[in-house]
Amino acid sequence: MSGQAPRLRAGLIGLGAMGRNHARVLSNLDGVELVGVVDPAGDSTGALRVPVLNTVAELLALKPDYAVVACPTALHEQVGLELAAAGVGALIEKPLAQSVEAATRLVHAFETAGVVAGVGHIERYNPALQSLRARLEAGELGDVYQVVTRRQGPYPHRIADVGVVMDLATHDIDLTAWVTGQRYTSVSARTVSRSGRLHEDMVAAVGQLADGTMVNHLVNWLSPLKERSTVITGARGCFVADTLTADLTFYANGAIDTEWEALRAFRGVAEGDMVRYAIPKREPLLVEHERFRDAVEGKESDIVTLRQALRTVEVSAAVLRSAEDGSTVALDRVGEPALTA
């Protein structure tokens, strides 16, 4: 139709479990045309109506405006550098890369190329966490004291190149820094590997944010119970976000006097009202794609930048380092983590 803006041409690299979801969203995304998918294993479902290619070079020949990188984490650097060199934007699945060094090279490559790039930290687009962040910014909780996250479930057999810290804990590290608006200043962690695989499958991490907020992350691949919980406690009560159901609940500190003598001297808080918020629940992956599409079009959009994602990789690397040698690792504002006694 004349007068219509031209559609952006998008590519997809990787057709695993997450890649298939990206393909579904891209195939129906307003203003975008999915022009090709790269996966040497082909399309096992036969549902795609676009070419399935063997190499990134073949995709680049189709002249995409941007590509979604959903291949294994170990390949992110290689694929990302190829896209940056070709001047093609990229939405890279989290984590940005499997090491601080690789992530840093990707940041420099895309910044030098001057093309839009972002990272798929999808929890930022979860309705419960978006509402929680807005309420924290509005001061509804008062001073924040503690952030506790629990993320556990069965082992995903598709993951073989990284452990639970880089694959799952990166969600919690990113969302904690984003929701609170604070950076990590130190972490201490313990990991175990009980499933016989190369990498860790359980981690317990304690951290501190720049404003003194305490942080605790419990993450594993060893539980039949699937749980995605974020609890933030502050001066006026606590918020509980369940990102599986996108529910947000507020538990207020009570202000009711008690006649029970044994409790009257207690100087803590009392149980108050509980509010469960009604939140519009759009699919986080669709919102993520809409925001990235807008960024590629040059519009103001709150995508997860590569530098933000690099910081998450730095904190994750510090978690692994702490678990390896039993130290507390202090995180500098810029550059490599610094080891403390």
Automatic annotation (TrEMBL):
Pfam family, one: GFO_IDH_MocA
Lineage start: Bacteria, Bacillati, Actinomycetota, Actinomycetes, Micromonosporales
GFO/IDH/MocA-like oxidoreductase domain sequence ranges: 130-239
Protein known as: Gfo/Idh/MocA family oxidoreductase
Superkingdom of this protein's organism: Bacteria
Cross-referenced InterPro entries: Gfo/Idh/MocA-like_OxRdtase_N, Gfo/Idh/MocA_Oxidoreductases, GFO_IDH_MocA-like_dom, NAD(P)-bd_dom_sf
Domain Gfo/Idh/MocA-like oxidoreductase N-terminal intervals: 9-121
